[in-house]
Structure formats: C-alpha cells, structure tokens
TrEMBL record:
It comes from the Eukaryota. This is Troponin I, fast skeletal muscle. It comes from Chroicocephalus maculipennis (Brown-hooded gull). Troponin I is the inhibitory subunit of troponin, the thin filament regulatory complex which confers calcium-sensitivity to striated muscle actomyosin ATPase activity. Binds to actin and tropomyosin.
Amino acid sequence: SSHLQKKRRAATARRQHLKSAMLQLAATEIEKEAAAKEVEKQNYLAEHCPPLSLPGSMQELQELCKKLHAKIESVDEERYDTEVKLQKTTKELEDLSQKLFDLRGKFKRPPLRRVRMSADAMLRALLGSKHKVCMDLRANLKQVKKEDTEKEKDLRDVGDWRKNIEEKSGMEGRKKMFEAGE
C-alpha cells in the first residue's frame, strides 16, 4: 500500500506542478495581451489625435475651438450609437438564451406508438419522391417449415389465456380441475 501512496503523491505533485505551470503561462499571456493593447491604443491616438499646436491669434484659436467642439460632438454621437447597438444585441442574446432555456424545460419526448408500415411505405416516407425501387421483403424471409405452422395452430386452438384463467378461477374452476384429476 505504501507503493500506491507514493504513486498517488507523485501524481498529486505532478498535477500541482502542471497547474502552476499553466497559471504561469496564462499570466504571461495576459501581460503580453495588455502590452499589445497599450501599443494599439498609442498607435490609434497618434493617428487620430495629432499633437495640439496652439495658434497665435485669437481668431485662429476660436476656429480651433469650434473644430474641436464639432469633433467632440461627432465622436459622442458615434459612441452613443455604438452603445445603443450593444444594448440591443445584448437584449437579443438574453432573449435567445431565455428561449433556449424555456425550450429545454418544456420539451418532453412524446410516447412512441407502434405503427404497422410496409417497407415500401417506410422508404417512401423517408425518401419522398426519390423512392422508385420496390422492395420485396418477403423474398428475403426464410421459408417456413410445415411443422412450425402446425405448432402455431395448436397454440391457437388453446385459445385466449384469459378465458382459461377465468374458467379455472373460483369454486367452479376448482371443481372442474378436481373432476378432471379423478
């Protein structure tokens, strides 16, 4: 049993080692991702927000302010539109997942009924108009021997088992059984 315990301890140690290695890897990946995002942000800002150079005259300053206000307004509108789109999409997602949840809860398998159906009818149902070949299943069946059919006839002659049970139940049935036994 000590050998088994050593094996277990080794397996646990290995699991712990793998877990810490995976966590380390994940942490490095997260750091890389954050650094990449920062670089992307800096590039975007450099492209879309050139460094501000303040003009000398009052009129040029006012022009700059008007341009900046216009830019702020357009960016705000864009942000608002994006937020609305996001909210709409989130709502649609929630509705769909709710529908999924409801469907999972409601669906019950219907009780399956046995249906007598020929092979042709089955193929027609499955294949639709494509079904041209007529299958003769009887040709594939083994020939039935005479003795088998006679056995079945004997079984039929016995009749319905319910009647036999009814006849043998109660005092009448016991009396008949007793008389038959004598």
